[in-house]
Amino acid sequence: MNESTFDERWSIRLSRMNVLIVYVLLSLFSVVFTIFIIWITPLKEYIPGYASVEKVKQVYYNKLKADSLEKKLEQQQLYIENFNKRILLGEDLMDDDTLIGKTKDDIDYSSIPDIKSKDDSILRNEWENRKNYEITYSPSSNRGSGISKFVFYTPLHGPIINGYDIKNHHFGIDILGRKDETIQSTLEGMVIFAGWTYKYGYIISIQHVDNLISVYKHNSALLKEEGDRVEAGESIAIIGNTGKLTTGPHLHFELWYHQKPINPANFINFE
């Protein structure tokens, strides 16, 4: 209204419908504007359950890495438990067990000559030309692949009184030694088992690189514990006569490569 003439200048007609429409439009605008602001600004990261793309990628990557590590740990633990329980503790293995080398019934293995390979001859010559305490392990050397790439330290010098015989489940060799003589680790590695068993007395087992495991049985005392790191040539036990399956002071020594037994006499000179 004009205050002087009281003429009507402008007017608006309100009704319930008009007020409702205006209220709805303002509400929709407010919602859309709020969503837009949250979408284009870092405010969205404060919403529970919502994170930035980089954080989501990092979480996904960490989850995959954790799952892989957990699976690898389970496989390693299963391998160690199976090895300790079935081999170190002297449990019998079935013919179809993967830890036993496969043989065929139609082959007479006793008639096969013991022919040394070229790599084995090179290894023996290299070992024999070295002096005591000069044997080292060099995984980066170009000596070959598989078990032939290792240079072993002799765990105990002495005559072999019982050889490797896989058909009779004798997966290692027995080395005669003097009383209270020390036993050395054949390679660098970590102790995965150190304890007492009824059949084999005090046993110590060492995990080396490339799924190689060395086992030392019938000891009178152990100088290392599970989890200890050892170097090649480091004293790990004292020779003994413990366990049911022994007739005198000696070392029962085994090598397992990728869960298969290996004849130590083919790679180490014990004389």
Provide the fold topology.
Blueprint: H1 16-40, H2 53-88, H3 118-128, E1 160-162, E2 172-176, E3 182-184, E4 189-197, E5 201-208, E6 212-222, E7 229-230, E8 235-239, E9 250-257, E10 260-262
Antiparallel strand pairs: 1-2, 2-9, 3-8, 4-5, 4-7, 5-6, 6-8, 6-9, 9-10
Keywords:
271 residues; alpha+beta; Glucose Permease (Domain IIA); rod-shaped
Quick overview of this protein structure:
The chain has 271 residues and is an alpha+beta fold.
Notes on the protein architecture:
The chain has a domain at 118-266: Distorted Sandwich (Glucose Permease (Domain IIA)), CATH 2.70.70.10. The N and C termini lie far apart (123 Å). The model is unreliable at 93-104 and 131-142 (pLDDT under 50). It is rod-shaped. The chain is α+β, with helices and mostly antiparallel strands and 271 residues long. It has helices spanning 16-40, 53-88, 118-128; strands at 160-162, 172-176, 182-184, 189-197, 201-208, 212-222, 229-230, 235-239, 250-257, 260-262.
Rg estimate, integer Å: 37 Å
CATH C-level name of the domain at 118-266: Mainly Beta
Order of helices and strands: HHHEEEEEEEEEE
Q: What is the CATH topology assignment of the domain at 118-266? A: Glucose Permease (Domain IIA)
Percentage of residues in helical conformation: 25-40%
**Could you name the ranges where pLDDT drops below 50 across 5 or more consecutive residues?**
93-104, 131-142
Q: Tell me, rounded to a whole number, the average pLDDT.
A: 79
Fourth CATH level, the homologous superfamily of the domain at 118-266: Glucose Permease (Domain IIA)
Roughly what fraction of the amino acids lie in strands? 15-25%
